[in-house]
Design brief:
59% of the residues lie in helices and 5% in strands. By secondary structure, it is mainly alpha-helical. The strands form two sheets. A two-stranded antiparallel sheet has the order 1-2. A two-stranded antiparallel sheet has the order 3-4.
C-alpha cells in the first residue's frame, strides 16, 4: 500500500484529463451523457409540434381514442347550464310546428311543473274527501258501538 501522497486517481483534476487512455474514456463519457440527456429529453418532449402529433405511435393512438370518447359526450351537459325558462321552453322541448318531441325527459319535467298548479288546486277537494271518509268511519264505529249486544237488555 502506497502512502496517501503517492496514491493517484484515474482522473487528474488539474489537467482535466484521464491518466490512462484519455481519448477513449472521454468518448465513452460523452456518449453516456448524450444517451442520458436524450432519455431525459424524450421523457418530457414526446410531442412533435411541427407534425402536430406524438412521436410515439402508441401514445398517438391512445390520444386519438381518448379524443373520440370525448367527442361522443361533448355538449351533453351544455343544456343543464341554461336557466329553467330556456331549458324547458316549448321550442327546446318539442317542435312547435309538428309537435314532435325533441327531449323525452324534458317534456316529462315540463308536464310535472304544469301539473303542480293543478295539483295544488285539487288540495282542498282531496282534503274534503279525506274528511268525509273519516266522518263516515267515525259514524260507522259509533253505530257499531250502539248496536252491540248488552247483557243488561
Amino acid at each position: 500500500m502506497k502512502p496517501k501522497s503517492h496514491q493517484s486517481r484515474e482522473f487528474d483534476v488539474l489537467t482535466n484529463k484521464y491518466i490512462q487512455n484519455h481519448t477513449a474514456r472521454e468518448i465513452e463519457d460523452f456518449e453516456g451523457q448524450r444517451d442520458l440527456l436524450s432519455k431525459k429529453y424524450w421523457k418530457s418532449h414526446d410531442f412533435d409540434m411541427l407534425a402536430v402529433k406524438y412521436c410515439d405511435p402508441a401514445k398517438q393512438e391512445a390520444y386519438e381514442a381518448d379524443l373520440k370518447a370525448k367527442e361522443r359526450t361533448h355538449g351533453v351537459r351544455q343544456k343543464e347550464k341554461l336557466p329553467k325558462s330556456i331549458r324547458y321552453g316549448e321550442g327546446n322541448v318539442y317542435n312547435i310546428v309538428n309537435n314532435e318531441i325533441k327531449d323525452g325527459l324534458s317534456i316529462g319535467n315540463l308536464d310535472r311543473t304544469r301539473n303542480k298548479s293543478v295539483a295544488s288546486k285539487k288540495g282542498s277537494a282531496i282534503e274534503e274527501q279525506i274528511r268525509a271518509n273519516a266522518t263516515a268511519v267515525d259514524d260507522m264505529m259509533e253505530t257499531r258501538a250502539m248496536n252491540r249486544v248488552n247483557p243488561s237488555r
